[in-house]
Amino acid sequence: MFREKSLALVVTLCAGLLSFASVASAEVTTISVPLDHAAPGGPQTQVAYDRRPARGERRGTIVFLSGGPGEPAIRFADDLASGPLRALRQQFDLVFVDQRGTGRSAPLRCATAPNGRFSTDLSAERLQAAIAACATELGSERRHYSTMATALDVEAVREAIGMERIIPLGVSYGAQVAAEYARRFPDRLQALVLDSASPVEGLDTMSLAPQTALARVFREACFPPGCSDLLGEPVTLIAESADRLRRRPLAGLGAEDVHALVLASDTDPLLRTDIPATLQAAIGRDAGPLRRLARYAGGGSGRTQLNEVRFLATACVEGNQPWDPDTDPAGREAALEGYLRANRAAYAPFPIEAVAPNLTATQCLSWPATPRAPLPPAFDQGSGVPTLVLAGREDLRTPLESQRGIAAQFPGATVRAVADVGHSVLVNEATDCARDSLRAFLLFLDVTPRCDRRVETDIALPYFDALREVPRARGRLSERVERTATAVNLTMVDALRWGPVGPMRGVRGGRVRLGDETLVLRRYELVPGVVVSGTWHVERGGRVTVTGRGATGVLRVRPSLRMTGRLDGETVRYQPLG
Prior knowledge:
There is one protein chain. It is globular, with a radius of gyration of 25 Å. It is built from 19 helices and 16 strands. Helix 8 (234-247) crosses helix 10 (269-283), helix 9 (255-264) runs antiparallel to helix 10 (269-283) and helix 10 (269-283) packs antiparallel against helix 11 (288-298). The model is unreliable at 21-25 (pLDDT under 50). It is of the alpha/beta class. Strand 5, helix 5 (173-184) and strand 6 (192-195) form a beta-alpha-beta unit. Helix content is 34%, strand content 17%. An 8-stranded mixed sheet has the order 1-2-4-3-5-6-7-8, sandwiched between helices. The protein has an 8-stranded antiparallel sheet with strand order 9-10-11-12-13-14-15-16, covered by helices on one side.
């Protein structure tokens, strides 16, 4: 069988995760709902929500549904209300719902996942055993964590708050819940907002959606023009690096790590813009950049608040894996291997050996047989409910192509494709286009925000694994000094890219961090043998000391990165790279 990744990483790759960290301070209301909505007199469970009244005359009630499945909303209510939804506070009530089995809504737990999360230290075999044991402990109750049940819970919340009509606003899987609610209760809708929506028909546990947009997304991410000439065509870099690392891993990293980085990049522009240069280096057997990027991406997989038990309880039943969820798990491994081998072309440019470890379906191999809830009816074509679909142009897990297909299911839906953002548009956009579009949509404003404008994001420059490969600065100094000066400039550019997420380790060693507009470098090494230490302020510049096997000395670095000083006793006046 293919080697598996940890569940925490797979969840990060597949779910729509919010990045806020604050805890809501408003009062939370909890209501009881039937565990099985078909048996209202049977066992009950709890659903919690945080309601924040409009500050002025109310124009409607927005019900916010987060992603996953398994991600809470109440925990992030303060940040959402003061951030993406701030412009709506005056005219709209905001209701943040923790979906059943998450956050404060009777979160799912079991002996092998006591806090709703499985240990990241388990081997693949032990993880599968832990997942199976957890599902068995949940027993027949595990079938009640469906999208249909969650949509029915939203209707119960609507009744509890006493609103005749609501505006479901869902992100990622939350948008799938919102769309299911719309199909089941069209007469309860004032409007519908879908941000990076998962398909209503079920979750993409086989990671097929990213393949439809991969070439376009990385062609757009490799910006500005000339990026491909400098680094290589992105999809070619992905294909060649994945093939080479499949045959011969690099520093313990293989083709599956390339696949994981590509999927994770749609929520992080730093990842997106570093991947071409990193893969170019990996093809040349330079492990440093790939090791740093994998360390950075992996560092985020354990910080979410997502309930993995709820994630699996829904995904393993409603996903598009090649087996019926109500069948014996014994034949699933063979079914998965057979499907992947028969559909190799669908996963190009990745080899299937790279894809399999990152699939949610791989984590569902041991989930016990569980019946799937019925699919929702088709949307009432005559309902005329205003619908807004927000799509990030650089989203891979729910790409623009799939968002247009989802919008086609809702007559008259408006699709807003937002440049320079991937998954979860309202939270992750660099501009206010989606937020302005949402406000204009809900308040019927006669404006159309521009969403096609690119945000200038520097692509990572090529990595060099030896000083002799670094281009010489133009001048009349010694070759060693001119190459070292260029290397210091590249180091400062790299430090400015990575400092904001620091403290961050350098590709070859040392650390960098950015705080109070001051960049602090401690033996930061990008090019082997060129070690840079010092402090640099964004407005005042600073001084750095250069040590190592290259030319050594002290340089004054201005805010423009223009450098003056002495290296190996020679006077340096350096204009930065264009």
